[in-house]
Design a protein that fits this description.
By secondary structure, the chain is an alpha/beta fold. Helices cover 35% and strands 12% of the residues. It has a 6-stranded parallel sheet, sandwiched between helices. The protein is elongated, with a radius of gyration of 30 Å. It starts with 9 loop residues before the first helix and ends in a 27-residue tail after the last helix.
Length: 810
């Protein structure tokens, strides 16, 4: 690209370069200085922090980008914000939001004067201060910079349904080597130029990671350009190290890129033409640690990996470096940039946009400001008719699909609800949503495609859990609603992304200026107990173990036993704020237990005795049979029916758990039961046989403080293969025959009668094995089993709270 010399007039060029120098000065000051922020006195070792921590290498390049984006925001009156993929460039974002005034508005104690500068510098990477990376505490950020790889998918999530927004996404060349980022380049095939905003990737090609070169910096220019064009982008290159030339080149190309975006969108919107364009992007190739020390102790620093973190050690062991630091900072000529009171001089302050046009103040970066409630259908309209417990079967997620269809329909005009998933919406039986919307897809279509259109409420046409998670996070963080449906085993792919989002929610909850956002809702289907044809590779319920490690203020886990409970739970989750809600539900036909009214009461309480399945009324139970999850509920109730038939005098209490966190103490989780309430359900000393959906030790972790430690949990224990549904339960000792034996082993008072029944259960297990080996399906008595309760046992609620439709929240 040729430089348009006239893009920046000499006076504007001088100011742009000065503003960049100011941002660089603030960045170095944040990394190093404890005192003497304007260097009014000769720099001393005592002015330097005792422990210097930070990342300089990416920072000057990000400062360079920020000042140039400020210029085009003002020139073109843009709605734009900045995502910092190289997240350890925290000094850049903090410094620039300080220069534009946003930082001091949010944190008045960090004032725009010399005392404020001192506080700004001291707090960085300092105990009680702020982190070295872009974080929730940083105005203008929706992106936690501690872990690399998610910037571009977050940017696309923010751009969906925001037609007036441009998301400038700075992609580090080290970050570009991660799997999520490498895949995210393909997101341009899903961006609608009519109804969505634009994403402007800026690949910051500064050549190095911590101590290695980056791949994209070491391939030939032609190969890099071919790669980016092959991903569907039109790359514009800004390359060099001489500031004035780079300013002119960046200004020229940014003008061209913004005009390209406007032309693409204008043409598409004027002609209603959603044909996929080749969106522009920028490759900024600048030295690592640009404008920093060139040589330290005889070693090249600028333009090498040595500039990545702290390029100059300044401590008691290196006293000679104090003068070098002073010389470096004075090279920015702060006296020309700040007045004697420490305020940015007016002619430079004028370069920043005003009000909400400042990237640190853009409302999209504090999405709770823009968040509006969903219009919600009445989930009761989708209720499964349950004349008596277990009398009918239904596919839970298929029932939920009808409810989600209505949610999508009611919110089509507001365009603030989307469903995300990696090619599994139909597989997870949510296909009813395609009655009212399509999959968004802007690449080429073929004759036999289904449900593809340039615009739609479903984004499931990329087989990447990373992208679905990233898009949804970006969508939520900018003030919208959604859910992510996935196979249970493969949600583990985004374990780390979930962790980062949970940390974001935790920190923002402590920041008064951050507004709450809609909850991140996971629907985990095709779960561990329903993998007849996929086998061992598709069996992993461990996401639950991972989730409960996070702060109790943030995480919620629900395992509804049937479709009506699933509807009640999901209605609650879609209305909730600032949580991560994990819902596990099955898609295969299973018995339905509760009427809708009973389901609402049960889900509101989160846990309870199923009186219709119990026979201990008026007496202490001999045993508590507990269950959590659809399949464990089925097997526990089947075991109870055997016990009640063969041992009618045995007093059995059935407890069902919907809200997993109820098992924790109320001192540990806001949903947790008090010890008194827990003992009322589970007793203080009776044996508890607990059928659990996931790994058994998770229940032990949640209940380790409880008085009653006679707890025997049966769940998934890494046994599985391609087999029948019931045989999966047998292999993991979660089947009814093993559960009955478990009860007998725990209750010696059953004596001879128990021994005879135990022998029958052993015989049944042998019969089962022979039958499936011969016929390839489960025994008829398993396939056709129904709950055999008395006519007086019914699932009607004994409470007037049935109209609430809410799960208790704290």
């Amino acid at each position: 690209m040729e430089t348009k010399a006239e893009t920046l007039a000499p006076e504007l060029l001088r100011k742009v370069n000065a503003y960049w120098r100011a941002a660089n000065y603030l960045s170095v000051g944040q990394i190093y200085l404890y005192d003497n922020p304007l260097l009014k006195e000769p720099l001393k070792l005592s002015d330097v922090k005792p422990l210097v921590v930070g990342h300089w290498g990416t920072t000057p390049g990000q400062n360079f980008i920020y000042v140039h984006l400020n210029r085009v925001i003002k020139k073109y009156d843009l709605d734009m914000f900045y995502i910092a993929g190289p997240g350890h460039g925290g000094p850049a974002l903090v410094g620039n939001t300080y220069l534009e005034g946003t930082y001091s508005e949010i944190y008045p104690n960090i004032s725009q004067d010399e005392p404020g500068l001192k506080k700004l510098f001291k707090q960085f990477s300092f105990p009680g201060g702020i982190s070295s990376h872009v974080a929730p505490t940083t105005p203008g950020s929706i992106h936690e910079g501690g872990e690399l790889g998610y910037s571009l998918s977050h940017a696309f999530g923010a751009a969906f349904d925001n037609p007036g927004l441009i998301v400038a996404c700075i992609v580090g060349d080290g970050e570009a080597e991660t799997g999520p980022l490498a895949t995210a380049w393909q997101s341009n095939k899903l961006l609608n130029p009519i109804s969505d905003g634009a994403v402007l990737p800026i690949l910051h090609l500064n050549g190095y990671k911590i101590s290695n070169p980056t791949v994209l910096a070491r391939i030939e220019h032609e190969e890099l350009e071919q790669f980016l064009r092959g991903c569907g982008w039109t790359p514009y290159f800004v390359e060099g190290d001489e500031p004035e030339q780079m300013h002119q080149l960046m200004a020229s190309i940014l003008d061209e890129v913004i005009e390209d975006i406007r032309q693409i969108q204008g043409n598409a919107r004027k002609k209603s033409d959603a044909t996929r364009p080749r969106w522009p992007m920028i490759v900024l190739k600048s030295p690592k640690g640009w404008t920093g020390p060139k040589v330290v102790d005889g070693l090249q620093i600028e333009g090498t990996f040595r500039a990545h973190q702290v390029p100059l050690l300044v401590d008691a062991e290196h006293p000679e470096h104090v003068k070098q630091l002073e010389s470096w900072m004075k090279s920015y000529k702060a006296e020309e940039l700040f007045d004697r009171n420490g305020r940015l001089i007016p002619e430079l302050a004028e370069l920043a946009p005003k009000g909400d046009h400042r990237m640190g103040a853009n409302p999209h970066t504090n999405g709770g400001i823009l968040l509006r409630d969903l219009r919600m259908p009445d989930f009761h309209d989708h209720a499964v008719n349950v004349p008596s417990p277990g009398a009918v079967a239904a596919q839970d997620t298929q029932v939920l699909g009808g409810f989600l269809r209505d949610v999508a329909k009611l919110n089509q005009e507001t365009c603030n609800f989307r469903i995300f998933g990696p090619d599994e919406t139909l597989s997870n039986l949510l296909g009813a949503v395609f009655e009212v919307t399509n999959r968004q897809w802007d690449a080429r279509e073929a004759k036999n495609d289904e449900f593809l259109a340039p615009a739609g409420r479903v984004l499931d046409s990329m087989l990447s859990e990373h992208q679905c998670e990233g898009w949804l996070e970006g969508y939520l963080l900018t003030g919208r609603h959604g859910l992510f449906n996935s196979y249970e085993a493969f949600i583990r792919i985004v374990d780390s992304m979930f962790s980062q989002h949970a940390k974001w929610l935790k920190v923002t909850l402590e920041l008064p200026w951050r507004r709450k956002i809609a909850s991140l809702n996971y629907l985990l289907a095709s779960h561990v107990w329903q993998q007849d044809h996929n086998g061992f590779t598709h069996q992993d319920p461990g996401f639950l173990d991972h989730v409960i490690n996070k702060k109790a203020d943030i995480v919620r886990v629900y395992l509804p036993p049937d479709a009506n409970c699933l509807l009640s739970v999901f209605d609650h989750c879609l209305r909730s704020r600032h949580y991560v809600n994990v819902v596990v539900a099955g898609k295969h036909a299973l018995p339905q237990w509760l009427t809708m009214d009973a389901a609402v009461v049960h889900c509101t309480e989160g846990i309870g005795i199923w009186q219709w399945a119990s026979n201990d009324q008026g007496a202490e139970p001999d045993v508590v049979m507990a269950c959590c999850g659809d399949t464990p509920t089925l097997e526990i109730l089947a075991a109870v029916s055997i016990l009640r038939e063969h041992l009618p005098d045995l007093k059995v209490r059935v407890v069902n758990v919907v809200d997993l966190m109820k098992l924790q103490s109320s001192s540990e989780h806001p949903h947790g039961l008090s010890d008194t309430d827990y003992d009322a359900l589970f007793t203080r000393d009776k044996h508890i046989i607990f059928g659990f959906h996931g790994y058994p030790w998770l229940v032990h972790r949640l209940t380790y403080r409880r008085t009653n430690q006679n707890l025997h949990v049966r769940g998934y224990k890494e046994e599985g293969t391609i087999t029948t549904a019931f045989d999966m339960r047998v292999q993991n000792d979660l089947d009814r025959f093993h559960l009955v034996q478990d009860v007998i082993d725990r209750l010696p008072q059953l004596s001879v009668r128990g021994n005879y029944l135990k022998q029958q259960m052993k015989d049944k297990l042998i019969e089962h094995k022979h039958y499936i080996d011969r016929h390839g399906q489960d025994l008829p008595e398993i396939r056709n089993w129904k709950w055999n309760g008395s006519s007086s046992n019914n699932p009607e609620p004994r409470s007037s709270r049935m109209e609430s439709g809410r799960i208790a929240t704290h």
